[in-house]
Amino acid sequence: MSEMREAAMQSKAWPFEEARRVLKRYEAKAPEKGFVLFETGYGPSGLPHIGTFGEVLRTTMVRRAFEAISDIPTKLISFSDDLDGLRKVPDNVPNREMMGEHLQRPLTSVPDPFECHESFGHHNNAMLQRFLDTFGFDYEFQSAREYYRSGAFDQTLLKACEKYDELMAVMLKSLRDERRETYSIFLPISPTTGRVLYVPIRDVNAATGEITFDDEDGTEVTMSVTGGNVKLQWKPDFGARWAALGVDWEPYGKEHAPNTAIYSKICSILGGRPPEVFTYELFLDDEGGKISKSKGNGLTIDEWLTYASTESLAYFMFQKPKTAKRLFFDVIPKAVDEYHQQLNAFLNQDMTAQLNNPVWHIHGGDVPKSDMVVPYSMLLNLASVSGAEEKSQLWGFIQRYAPETTPEGNPGMDAAVGHAVRYYNDFVKPQKVFRAPNELEREALEELRGNLVDWDGGLDAEALQSMVFAVGKDRFDPLRDWFKALYEVLLGASQGPRFGGFIALYGVDETVALIDDALAGKLVKA
Fold first, then answer.
1. How far apart are CA 54 and CA 134, in angstroms?
2. What's the CA gap between 379 and 414, in Å, rounded?
3. Do the beta carbons of residue 164 and residue 174 sit within 8 Å?
4. What pLDDT is stored for residue 420 in this prediction?
5. According to the model, what pLDDT value does residue 297 have?
6. H or E stretch including 310?
7. What's the 3-state SS for 470-494?
8. Helices 50-69 and 3-10, interaxial angle, to 10°?
9. Which residues of the chain have pLDDT under 70?
10. ∠ CA(50), CA(55), CA(59), 5° rounding?
11. What is the distance in angstroms between the CA of the first residue and the CA of the last residue of the chain?
12. How much helix, strand and coil, in percent to the nearest 5, is found in the chain?
C-alpha cells in the first residue's frame, strides 16, 4: 500500500470516511457491474439551485476519495426525476398562467415557460447540466423519462408487478388510513389527458405485467407498466432506482432521512442492495428559511460566480455538510479568503494534513498555488475608499504595493479584483454609513495622521500595524473600540481589515488624505 493510500485510509476528512464505507461493501469481491456507482437525484419541478449543485460536488469529492483508496473503477450518475407530475407552478418563472393549465402532467410534457426548450423539464435539465459542466464534473446525465420509455426500467417494473403485494405492505404501514384506501405504488399516465394519475389500481397482473384502473373520464383501462405508461410513486421510485442502477452511494437532504428504511426495503424486495446514504443538512436563505426551487429564494450558482470563483463555492460546500448553513451573498468574501488561506497552508503540510485540507478534495489532489497577493476582504475595503467602478482602479494600488504582480501573471488575482469591484458596488456601497469621530477618537486620529506624515518605514504592513496599535492602546479599553472607530469613521463599515495592511495597500499619503476628509466631516456629508 502506497504512503498516500495508507494516509487516506486513516484520514478523518468526511469524504474519506464516506469512501471507506463504500469500500467496505466490496471487501469480499468487486462489484459484478464492474464499477462503483455514485448517484445524485434531481427533481426538475423548479429551477436548479445551488443546493442541487452541492449534491454533485460533494458526491464528486467522495468519488475522488474512493479512487485514492481503491482501484475499482467508478461512475457518477446525475439522475433527473423528470417524469414527475407538475404539482404547482413555481413562483420564479414567466407564463405562470399557461403552466397552470398543465398541472399533473409530467415535467417533460409541460411547455417551457421560457420558450427555449422542448419542455419545462428539458429546460431545467439543460440548466443543471450547464452548471455541472461549468465546474468540469465527470458525470453521466440520466433522465427518468428516457429510462421509463426506453425499457431500461422494464425489468424492475415487471419485478414490481410480481412483488406488488409485498411492496404495498411496506408502503401501507407508512400511510394514514384515508391515504391507504386509494394508494398504489404505480402511477399510470392517462392515455387521454397525459396527466400523472393518483388513482386506485383495480388489478395488477404479474403474468402479463399489466395494471387496470379507471381513467379520468371513468373509462376502465388496462395497460402495460412498461414503455413509459406508468411511473412509480416517489418513495417506491427511490428504492426501485437504487435496485435498477445498482447504486452504491447517494447523498440527500435530511428531509429524506425518515424514509431511508422504506427506500432500502423497496430496493431489497426488488432484488437490489441498498446503497450507503449520506444525509446532509439544508442550506438556509438570508432569513434562515429553507431554500426552495419553486420559490427561488436561494442564492443561485450564477450569482455566486458573479462575485467569486468556482473554487470558493466548492470550499463553502465542503465545510460541515451535516450542519445547516446560511447561504447568502455575505458569506462569499469569507469563503474566498479562507479558500486561499488553505491553498497557502497546503504547501507546507505533511501528507496527513494535506488529505484533511479542503483544497485536496476541491482539486482532487492536484492543488494549485494561490496567486492572491491581496485578500478579497482587503480588495473590498480598497474598492470602498477608492470608489472603484473598474478593475484598473484597484490594480494601480496593487502594483504599487506588489510591483511584480500583474493581471496577466496573476489571473486568479485579476478575476478576484473584478469580482470585488462588482461585489462592492452591489452590496457594500449601498450599505456604507460614515459617522463623525467623538472627541477621544478625533484625538487618536490626529496622532495617527501625524505619525503617518512623519513615516519613513515604507510599506511594511506589520510595522504600520504596530504603529496603529500603539496610537490606540493607551486610549481605548478595550482596544477593539479603536479599530472599530477606524472602520466606522474612515471606511463606513462596522468591521474591516488589519489596518496596517490596509495602509500599506492604499498608501500612506492616501490614508493621510482620508483621515483629513474624515476630520473635516467630508465623509459623513458624502
1. 13
2. 11
3. no
4. 96
5. 59
6. helix 310-318
7. HHHHCCCCCCHHHHHHHHHHHHCCC
8. 130
9. 1, 286-288, 290-298
10. 145
11. 66
12. 50, 10, 35
Is the Cβ–Cβ distance between 43 and 387 less than 8 Å?
Answer: no
Cβ(37)–Cβ(75) under 8 Å? yes
Torsion over CA: 9, 15, 17, 21 (sign): negative
Pairing of strands 230-232, 186-188: antiparallel
Block residue for cell numbers 515604507 = 458
473 close to 525: Cβ distance less than 8 angstroms: no
Q: Are 329 and 427 contacting, i.e. CB atoms less than 8 angstroms apart?
A: yes
pLDDT of residue 82: 96
Distance CA 514, CA 505 (A): 14
Residue 491 identity: L
> Sign of the C-alpha dihedral, residues 288, 289, 290, 292?
negative
Give the number of other Cβ atoms within 10 Å of residue 361's Cβ.
Answer: 27
The partner residues of 140 in beta bridges, in order of sequence, read 77
Question: How do strand 220-224 and strand 210-214 relate by DSSP bridges?
Answer: antiparallel
Q: Comparing C-alpha atoms, which of 174, 142, 155 is closest to residue 240?
A: 155
Check residue 287 and give its pLDDT.
67
| Residue ranges per structural domain of the chain | 3-175+233-283, 376-431, 439-525
Q: CB–CB of 452/512 below 8 Å?
A: yes
Give the Cα separation of 139 and 63 in Å (integer): 11
Q: What is the CATH number of domain 3-175+233-283?
A: 3.40.50.620
DSSP annotation of 426: I
Stated as kind and residue range, the H or E segment containing 20 is helix 14-24
Question: Do 401 and 410 meet the contact criterion of CB atoms below 8 Å apart?
Answer: no
Amino acid identity for residue 244 in this structure: A
In the structure grid, which three cell numbers stand for residue 233, read together?
A: 410513486
Element (H, E) at 36: strand 36-42
With beta carbons less than 8 A apart as the criterion, state whether 358 and 315 touch. yes
Closest CA to 374 of 398, 395, 406, 391: 398
In the prediction, which pLDDT does 204 show?
98
Residue 212 pairs with which residues in a beta bridge?
Answer: 203, 222
pLDDT at 288: 67
Mode of pairing for the β-strands spanning 249-253 and 276-280: parallel
Residue written as grid cell 486561499:
340
Pairing verdict, β 210-214 and 140-143: unpaired
DSSP assignments along 361-383, one per residue: HHTTT-PPPP--SS-HHHHHHHH
The strand pair at 74-80 and 140-143 is best described as parallel
The CATH architecture to which 439-525 belongs is Orthogonal Bundle (1.10)
Q: Is the pTM of the predicted complex or chain greater than 0.85?
A: yes
